[in-house]
Amino acid sequence: MLASTLWILALCPTAQAEKAPLSMEELKQLPLAFVGTVTARSDSTSGIPILTVTTTRISLTFTVDRVLRDENASGIAVGAPFTVGAFKHSNSFLGGTNASGNSNVPIIGDRVRVFASNDVESCHPAGLKWAVEYPNGFQPILRIGFFSGDDEYRSEITMPMIAKSLSKELSIDCPTVDVPKKDPPSYCMISMRRADAIVFFMRWRDLSSSDCEEIEEALGSGLPIVGLRTSTHAFAMPAKSQWQWMNEGFPLQVWGQKWLTHHGHTSKTRVLAVDGSVKDHPILRGITGDFEVPSWLYCVEPLPSDAKILLWGESINSEQGAEISRRQPILWVRERSVTKQQRAAWWEERMKASSGAEPNVPQSLVPSRMAFCTLGHPRDFENVQVRRIVEQMILWAADHPEMIPADGLKCEIPAEWSAPATR
Questions:
Q1: Residue 3 in this model has a pLDDT that exceeds 60
Q2: N or C: which end of the chain has fewer CB within 10 A?
Q3: How far apart are CA 81 and CA 34, in angstroms?
Q4: What is the dihedral of CA 194, 196, 202, 205, to 10 degrees?
Q5: Which whole-number Å values give the CA distances from 318 to 129, 378, 397, in the listed order?
Q6: DSSP H/E element including 256
Q7: What's the CA gap between 337 and 343, in Å, rounded?
């Protein structure tokens, strides 16, 4: 009986070992990546029904919308069909429920990102040269991680609204995390590992060492980031903590400025008209400026020389003295081109620093793209141009400006949403 069972099992498809999902940075290093819409799909399942050990070989043909990476000259072309292989393996033999292979395999009509290699295995359809990385080589068009928690401007309410609006209009995956001020759980930042970009709207958060490490590793790998208002003072790490440097070092290195002051709670801000020199920037599509918002204007000058200012604001009824300028930047971006070799050298330096007795302070966190806006009062978001600014900052930072229409995103506000009062 045992010999017969072993003979039958020998005929069954070999189960692929379970693999941990790759980070977005790891996926982007695969030789082939593209955006496309599934136009044809063929599934072929083999196995022994009695033992319910099955492998489903899946062939998918895409119409290619955009080629993100083609390291090995695959022959892929925009507008042309391209076929890749995927698989699913399940094994419920003797009551087990093991499964492996590709997750979130798209169906006809789905538009997704595909990360693949020419490492084709026996579990893939025969005759294909390219196989989708498993388990997570199929990805939404974009994944944006939102991290909120500021206590005054109610970002735990406004950021989910922005995420919902962006997800509805563009089918973007937008997980949101509200980071509590007291005793935030460890690993609340872990979802940024597989994000294309992250959004911070936080104030005075004391994070665990594991979360601080997640932030540093993500930005050190080049992960783009968007910041709003109180993120100039996002952290309140304890004195003498090895992460105390983040309180001022993070905003200075990443945004280009830390918290300084503002024009007072009884004042308002006029968003000035878009200057002609920057009017063609993708973030400013559909943005005219020349409107008032409830936010009191933040003072952020001077900004670093690599900051490109896209919008200015002017304080109305400022509480500050004449020595504080009534005109301040409210939206700026930074881009940094850093090679893999430079990042590797940076990490080597960081590892040496972390092994010493001194505080673990990096010289420069290097997101590939950064966008910051000092607006963020809850009622600011009643204005479609403010919502548009934020959502288009995200798409630009994630390096998908082609997703921004010439006249800007619609940024429809969810029907059930209303601006909360500040605290």
A1: no
A2: N
A3: 12
A4: 30
A5: 65, 20, 32
A6: none
A7: 10
* Nearest by Cα to 100 from 89, 86, 91, 116: 89
| Rg value, the chain, Cα | 25
Note whether 151 and 236 are within 8 A (CB): no
| pTM tops 0.85 | no
Confidence (pLDDT) at 11 = 40
- Spatial CB neighbours of 201, under 8 Å, sequence gap ≥ 6: 146, 147, 148, 149, 150, 153, 155, 158, 159, 227, 228, 229, 230, 231, 376
CB neighbour list of residue 68: distance below 8 Å, 6 or more residues apart: 28, 33, 34, 35, 113
Cα dihedral 144, 278, 411, 317 sign: positive
Encode pLDDT of 412-422 as tens digits: 998 888 999 99
The DSSP 8-state label assigned to residue 275 in this structure reads P
The residue whose two tokens read 């500021």 is 150
Beta pairing partners, 200? 147, 227
Mean pLDDT for the stretch of residues 347-356: 60
Token pair belonging to 263: 């024009």
